[in-house]
Specification:
The structure is a homodimer.
Chain A (H helix, E strand, L loop, with lengths): L8 E6 L3 H10 L4 E7 L3 E3 L4 H5 L9 E3 H4 L6 E5 L2 E5 L4 E4 L2 E4 L2 E4 L3 E3 L5 H6 L6 H20 L3 H7 L1 E5 L3 H16 L1 H4 L9 E5 L11 H13 L3 E3 L4 E4 L3 E4 L4 E3 L2 E4 L3 E3 L17 E3 L11 E3 L4 E3 L12 H19 L14 E6 L2 E6 L2 E4 L1 H14 L3 H17 L21
Parallel strand pairs in A: 1-2, 1-9, 2-5, 9-20, 11-12, 11-17, 12-13, 19-21
Antiparallel strand pairs in A: 3-4, 6-7, 7-8, 10-18, 14-15, 15-16, 22-23, 23-24
């Protein structure tokens, strides 16, 4: 793949997410040859995908060209490629564009949606882990309302306006809040000839509280906020099947819906050749030690959501969020630099900066290490933190302007069906 | 399609482009029931499509939800539909979502790319008339460079970096300028491991000057500007065939290229049922009189690019630009309102406000009715005019910010392959 030989050691980083980019930035001025591979030519700011789906932000504002991150560093290379297999014997990766030897390999492939083997769910429900998926969901939501206008069938219309979000983590909570605001602020104006009060937003959570990774008070407040916005929150309910029209759960409750959004689980994106004892069953995460080394390998590391570092305080690994990913990337970068001069390596220490979720206009919940708060102030902090961690000045500015505009005008102008989504929903319920 | 009966006369407008929207706005507070149909739920600001293709603007900034234009007017309806046929006997349209009767029908369907029946050209070349097409071109341009990095075949690499734009009208000229600026400002930084000086931008024009609709001095200056930017301008050359690799022309010149952009002709988007004597041969435009009535019909009108009003000053109809389209929409709207009170109709008079084209940073050409000028001032006027005619405050603001950013930073950050374009180019030249 035309990467020149170099006297520096070659680090291959697979994945340009939070972890991979943080690592790359640490190595940029050091004596390494760094090859970043990603199947996209951009970094995705995943925490804001739900705003793309709901027409609040343009997709390009939460994406950033990876080549631009690496600009100006002569020992940096980017390759648009998918890694197929790791040859651990010969320290080589096999990719869609050929093979390449490495001195150090860093797996930062992140996670993908986990349908837990349910093929129907995978086929009929919508995921929201990538920008194209978010755009598909945006198209589908808008297409549903266009279709609801046309039908005289009561059941069909109800199903088209019934949204079921499965999974009460941050993604589900934030998406439910955004949909509720669309229902209130935009639908009645855009569809005066449709009784949009009948639109339903259901948030289905398998356990007994929303945002289970956050504090009890955050969970409680998030639920209150959602109910104020008219979202139906279903706790201790698990969706077990969905055929494109009807969702069955573990309870009596069923949902007739044209739109089921699956945000109820993720699994690591694994690579052939690294399977086996290293994988945590279920999540498929790679077990790593405190130096991010994948168990059994000296020169293969994993960072970010794909890695599971089992410490006393985090027996199931760190939370799958941007913060641990970035800190892991930085720590690994520092340690690799230390190897250049034979210095002792620093074991990874996670500095928990807290977590937060926004529910809607003026409504957010925040758990900081010393301080938990909810409401308007949390909402401002949430916006500030997200702007801060977005990559690129232009992205920050455009996102900021969109937020101010949306706030002042109670609007979301990116409600565009740029590419129609070919939906599976049948126009007639049998 | 669930449009209620009304005591007002029903006007069906097919197409939410410049003409259709201008007409709709004139009718919004009047005693008409207005049904706007479009196959997209948004208005496209076509003059800026080339900036989407070249990563300078986000697609959502040049699109505007049609429903938002019509918000707040109870007698206005939008339907996402494609019109299949006009039943002129019964005053009805047949569409993908059913049929509907009209009192007045306004055809504002615009134009589509004209490949003049050449199937290979249609299959292998890129068009740039819609937002998805512009995004496909954006993806392809970026994919080409990623692919050029990987090949050791000299011919293949040259072909991947060789861009051929066919058609020297405003679209071709503006796209060539933008590509030349990318070559200069971005490629060397993004692809340090590729000899991007070898990238070629060819602009092929069938006649003896660029921008044939503009003044001689504008043509001359546009050509000078392009050559300063390193674009190869080929005049009196017509591309006659392209098989995805090799383009033959009417001269000795051939082009080995992976990317041929076809901006050399348009034809009207016609409707079944309106064919026959009304169509101009070749362009397929509908002949209309000075009241926009399609020849032979009293209640069927055509406005915008699809219409050809043959006046002494414009024997082949008005130029296919936003200005005539908007003015026609406004004139027809006023006349329809006049019919309500039995007032005399006003024949259409085109007020030529001039035309302009931008070539690149600080470089544009402008022909105003009393004043022709080129260079920095024309470039500022071009930007001002385009911002002014963009629909929506948010779009204007976001476009403005992107322009300022791109200007100050010599950058274009939307160089994202959000959806890969499945290209036809074979990786091996036979």
């Amino acid at each position: 793949m035309n990467i020149p030989q170099s006297s520096f050691k070659r680090v291959i980083i697979i994945g340009g997410g939070f972890a991979g980019i943080a690592l790359a930035r640490k190595l940029c001025k050091k004596e390494f040859q760094v090859v970043v591979m990603d199947k996209n030519n951009y970094h995705t700011f995943q925490p804001l995908l739900y705003q793309v789906s709901t027409g609040g932000l343009e997709p390009d504002s939460i994406a950033y060209p990876i080549r631009k991150v690496l600009q100006g560093y002569p020992n940096f290379f980017f390759r648009l490629a998918k890694v197929l297999e790791v040859d651990t014997e010969n320290n080589k990766v096999h990719t869609t564009i050929g093979e390449l030897k490495f001195d150090y390999l860093v797996v930062a492939t992140g996670t993908t949606t986990n349908f837990f083997g349910n093929k129907d769910l995978e086929k009929y429900s919508m995921a929201m882990k990538t920008i194209p998926q978010s755009l598909n969901l945006r198209s589908l939501i808008l297409e549903n309302f266009e279709q609801a206008l046309l039908t005289d069938d009561y059941h069909e219309r109800e199903a088209l306006m019934n949204f079921v979000i499965v999974g009460g983590g941050p993604t589900g909570v934030e998406l439910a809040g955004a949909l509720a605001e669309i229902k209130k602020g935009i639908l009645p104006k855009d569809y005066p000839d449709l009784d949009t009060r009948r639109a339903q937003i259901n948030l289905v959570q398998g356990s007994d509280r929303l945002l289970p990774e956050m504090s009890e008070i955050a969970s409680k407040k998030a639920e209150d906020f959602l109910e104020q916005l008219g979202v139906h929150v279903w706790k201790n309910v698990r969706v077990e099947s969905y055929d494109g029209k009807l969702a069955h759960t573990n309870t009596e409750t069923t949902f007739e819906t044209a739109t089921l959004i699956w945000a109820a689980g993720v699994k690591a994106v694994t690579l052939e050749g690294l399977d086996g004892d290293n994988l945590v069953s279920g999540s498929k995460r790679l077990r790593v030690n405190q130096y991010h080394q994948v168990n059994g390998y000296e020169h293969i590391f994993a960072i970010g959501d794909v890695a599971q570092m089992e410490l006393e305080a985090y027996p199931d690994g760190h939370p799958m969020m941007a913060q641990p990913a970035m800190q892991q990337g930085e720590n690994l970068g520092e340690n690799l630099v230390r190897t250049l001069t034979g210095k002792t390596l620093k074991p990874f220490q996670y500095r928990d900066k807290g977590s937060m979720a926004t529910i809607g206009r003026n409504k957010a919940v925040a758990d900081l290490p010393r301080f938990k708060f909810q409401g308007v102030f949390a909402w401002f902090v949430w916006m500030f933190v997200h702007l801060y961690f977005l990559i690129g000045f232009r992205n920050r500015l455009v996102v900021f302007i969109n937020w101010v505009y949306n706030y002042v005008k109670f609007d979301r102008e990116a409600r565009l069906i740029i590419r129609p989504y070919k939906k599976q929903y049948k126009t007639q319920l049998d």
